[in-house]
Task: structure prediction
Amino acid sequence: MTTSRREFMKWVSAGGITLSLSRLAAAEQMAFPARETLPGRGKPNPAIGGAGRVDGIAKVTGSKLYASDFRANDLPGWPSKTSHAILVRAPDATHVYLGMDLARLGGALKPTVVVTAEDLVAINTRVPAFYEGDLFCPVGKTPLYLGQPVALLIFEQFDAYDRARMALRDGSFVRFGEETGPIEMPNYAAYRFTRVAGATPDAPDVYSPVLAGWVSPGRVQSSSLPVWSSLAHKNEAVYEKAAIHGDQIRAEIAASETSALVLDRTFDTQSVDPMFLEPECGLGWFSARDKTLELVLGVQSPYEAADSIAFLLGEAKAPFKPGKINAQFAYVGGGFGGRDHTPFVLYVALAAMFFPDRPVRLAHDRYQQFQGGIKRHAIKMRSRMSVDRASGKITAFAADHILDGGGLVNFSPNVATCAATAAIGIYDVPKVDVTTVAQHTRGVTAGSMRGYGSLQTMTALEVLIDEAAAALPLDPIDFRRRNALKPDGRTMTGNPYIVSVRTTEVLDKLEQHPIWQQRNAEKARAANGVLVGTGVACVTKDYGTGGDCSNGRVELSPDGRIAIYCDHVEMGNGIGTALANRVARHLGGMADEVAVSQVGVFDALDLVTSGDSYTMDQKTQDKAEKDPRWVPAISSATSASIGAHVGTHASAEAARVIFRFGLWPAALALWKIDRRDPRAKDWNKAVWKDGLLTLAGQPSLPLAILAATAHARNLVTGAVAHGFSRWAWSRARFPIDGEQYRAEIDALAIRRGAGKFTRIARSSVLFPPTNNNRMGTAYTSMCGTAVRVEIEKASGALRIAKAYSVFECGEALVPEVVLGQAQGGFAMGVGYALLETLPPFEGGPGNGQWNLGDYLVARGSDLPLRDMEIEMLPPLTPDEPPKGMAEVVMIPIVPALLNAIHDATGKRFDALPVTQAMLKGALA
Result:
């Protein structure tokens, strides 16, 4: 292997347009990939305890990495000049849109091209189902939501673009007429999750979603909220059964008020912005001669982005239908979910198509990102909980959630279900009934964001838990321990977790920590005018979606150089370094090349898919899997919490194949061990140490010699693998070298020596059953936090004096990266709890006037930079796989702070954020 990057990906067909997708490779000279992602030889080797980020030098030295870094003249083969586009958005969603005041952009400010809804109709574009709604609001209609695009303005000269951008900032460029009020749309989703446990922990459930499936009510009342009652008309039998059980649970809670502790509380969480550092940006160039649309994008879901653009233009009239789309994907300067399935990429493509032969850059500034970027869901929650006073055990829990989904559906149904199934957190509650509804509103679209609904509902829960403990009264940690779900217990959907559950260990750590042990003494020694309080919280967070894919390709050169190709995205989560470290477990050395955001380099697998992996039934899956190339899904979006677990999986399995059928037989040859010798089966006893493969009684062998031998003997030197996870990995057998090789993958191709990759037809496959879709979650991580706060009585100013977080994540592939995720999660939790908020409608970000002067995020001065301790529990077993932890480390920060505030002030707050002004008012 002499080149640092493989050829562009194989063209595949999508809607009559051929697609090519790759990680941006040739943006500068040929050495660009090495400076961007490669660790280089001699860097720390994880196999001997080292780490080191493979992209660290490129990032700190300012290499062009991110989508916003690039202009047309950075890209070989592109025209040198870059044009610029502005996406004009509606700052009003209660009046009829009448058009734009284009007269304001006369003379030097006049746009070269103006694209409106009328133009999209004229060329016959289509809107992908996920983004259903008008891409541009047509003249004569009321915008569907605040910030809905109305037009795309393209400027050939940068100066005209820049001056026009400033001129349009006052919000008066878009004209409106008659007041209509906001457009009313149906709810995005409504679900009910009800579980009634059996008489004993070992008895089967009486009723649960896993047994009966997920249900939705059949009737909506005039207020647009569902009618949840079991007595309502138009309900199907499956819903009615759940509703009867749920109504009974609620009646029992109400009836128990005389004999048990019953709390009935509301809690509201706010809309916030993901606030990633790099606003959304993209470059597009349509070559009319070649009919090729070239794109440079930064997203969390490359496969989906390219597929959506192909659908958008798949039936467009000539000359607006490209023959080919080549989408290249740069690094992402932060995502937090806000770049997962973003409609922004559609507008980048449209800008290029409407200004052919000239590259066009569409880039949000921070005002535009606030106005159009995806937000976190605001949720209104009402929770009722019954606790047996004698035992301190929670006997029943019921809750109702209303989510503000904003203008487009996006991931609102998914966030609603995740929030609902997280509503009882770490606890074992035998009777649970939770309803959830995601509503359309005229606000800015809400979607995927770090915490994904669990942050909101677990904050409300952990504050409620603390209140219950105080009322009983019981020590807050003891109360949590009494009610913690046991490792073999069932979640509120009725299934057990299939990974380690270490809640008690986390609670023990919190209880033993000096912050908790010294809480009374610190309160007693507080200075005059200062209130001191300590709070704890303990949470769990699922990782994965129940439909995750992993693609990996690993190659070994004759001189021992390692190259890794992966379909997951680098967005600050360190996926490239995690890949290098996990592969090194099998191959003994740090990779010399790591390429992320890849899709087509796995074409040797020749995969096909059909249907929806989340909704298909078992019969459909059984029939489809008879095709040895079929998989339930080919690629999935990246989130930080699945990077270690999902993103590295296929590459690790590919490396395992190379070791088992390449390096191991090479070692046997060098050790002169015959394959019939019993020692030939001792591959699991061989270990890498100091870059050498060692086996008791044999001389140690360096990777370079093993690789050269594998190539010389035409052994396996490369592998491509695909895996699918529906709360368990697919498994298959593959015939290799006379044996049936079993692995947690469903597709495999191998390369021998310097030959080409050849697909190995699987001899059998076991995909996770489709009923697993009923689980809601089966993978989880735990995290607990203790904080001490100091609050000035006179001003309400709050200082976090000390903080401690403890969590478990299985095997930490790169401990330094894991630590960084936990530190970032702490900062985001502080911002969410104390600072950040966006008004939902006319005064909010949809008006286009918001920037960081109005939106407060956590700064260094808000954090206990020198007094924050983070502890990672070691894996339970040496072979425990990595878990997703990037989301769970944020969640307990918020309720721990609220509980500390209560401990200091005696005041409980039922809405976020708890600002200095609110504290000052409560203490007045």
Q: What stands out?
A: The first strand starts at residue 12 and ends at 14. The chain has 23 helices and 32 strands.
